[in-house]
Amino acid sequence: MKIIAMIPARYDATRFPGKLMKDLGGEPVIVKTYKAAINSKLFHEVYVVTDSEVIKKSLIAIGGNVIMSKKEHDCGSDRIAEAVEDMDVDIVINVQGDEPFIDTESLKKLIDTFESDHNNEIDLASLKVEMTDNNDIENPNNVKVITDGYGFALYFSRSVIPHLRDKNSNTKYYKHKGVYAFRKSALIDFYNTPMTPLEISEKIECIRYLEVGKKIKMIETSIESIGIDTPEDLEKAIEFIQNQS
Question: Beta strands 66-68 and 45-50: pairing type?
Answer without folding.
Answer: parallel
